[in-house]
C-alpha cells in the first residue's frame, strides 16, 4: 500500500483496523418483528385503569361522541373562498354559525352548559333561515330548476311562513308599524304620564317656614321667651340675696354704698401683699414721705385760705354773677364718689355697649337682607303664577293640536285605503280586458 492510499490515522496507536461485521439474531417462533400498533384495545385500556401500577404510560381514551357533538352543529358557508397558498388570491372571509340540534327522544351533545334561546333570538333566527331559503329558492329558479313538491309549492309555503313570522314579530315589538298605529301608541304613552307634583324640597320649606307675627305659634314663642327672662331675673335676685344686697344697700340707691365684692377683694389682696413685702427701711421711707406730703397739704390749705380771704372783698360781685356754675360744680363734686365706686365695672359696661352696638348693626343689616329676600320671593311667586297660566294655555293648545292631528291621520288613512281599493279595481279591470 502506498503512502497516498494509507489511512490518515494509521500510525496512531490503539486503532482497530479489522473490518466491521454486522450480525442479526436468529428468528424465534414466539418473537414478532411487526411494529406495535398505536391503537389501544378496550381490554388493554380497562386493564390499565384497573391496575395503573402495571405500566407507567397513561393511555387516554378518545371520546368521538363528545367531539362529534361539539362540532356537528356548526355550519360553515365557504362558497367562493380560496384556501390555497397562492399569493395572488384574494383573502375572503367565511361565515360560521352554531345552533342546537335535537332529535326525537335525545339531544345530541350535552346541553347543560348552553343558555336557553330567548323568544326574540328565536324569531330572528327563523327570519334569517327563511331569508336563506328564499335566496336558495330564487337561485334554483334562476338556474332552471322548477321542480315542485307534490303537496304544495315551496314558494307558497315560504310566503305563508313569512307572513306568520312577521305577524308574531310585529306583535312582539308592540303592534302594527303604520303611521296611524305609531301615532296612537305615542298618544297613549303621553296620556299615561302622571301630572307633575309639587317639589318635595319646596313643600318641606313651606312646612318649616317661620310663623308670621301675631299667629298662635308666635305667641307661644313669646311666652316661652318671657318665661326664660322671668327665670333669669329670679336667679339674679337669689344671687343678690346670697351676697347680702338689697334695695337699701345697692350701689345706685343707698348713700353709703359698698364697693363691689370683686374690687374689694382685689384691693384687700394688694394691701396684704404690700404689708407682707414691707421691711423696716421701706416703712421708714414711707413714713417720711407721708409726713412730707402732710406738711405740703397743710401749707397748700393755708395758702388757699389766704387767697380766699384776699379775694373775698373783690369776688363777691363775681360769685353773685355765676350762681349756676357753682351749683353745677358742686353737683359734679358730689358725683365723684359714685364715679370712683363705679370705676371698676366701667370696662365691662363699655364692652357690653360695644357688643350691643354690633348686635344692633347686624340686626339692621339682617333686616335689609330679609326685606330684599321678601321682595325677590314675591317677584318669583308672581313669575311662577304667570308660568302656570302659560302652561295651562299650552296644555290646552297641545290637546287641540293632538286631536286635530289624530283626525287628520284618520282622514288620510281612509283616503289612502279608498285609493288602494280603486287602484285594485282598476288593475283587476285591466287584467280582465
UniProtKB/TrEMBL annotation:
Pfam families: Dynamitin. Residues 90-99 have a biased composition (Low complexity). One of its GO terms (biological process) is microtubule-based process. It is found in: Cytoplasm. The keyword Cytoplasm applies. Keywords: Coiled coil, Cytoplasm. One of its GO terms (cellular component) is cytoplasm. Residues 283-310, 370-404 form a coiled coil. Residues 43-52, 108-117 have a biased composition (Acidic residues). Residues 1-20, 30-121 are annotated as: Disordered. The keyword Transferase does not apply. PANTHER family: DYNACTIN SUBUNIT (PTHR15346). This is Dynactin subunit 2. It comes from Alternaria panax.
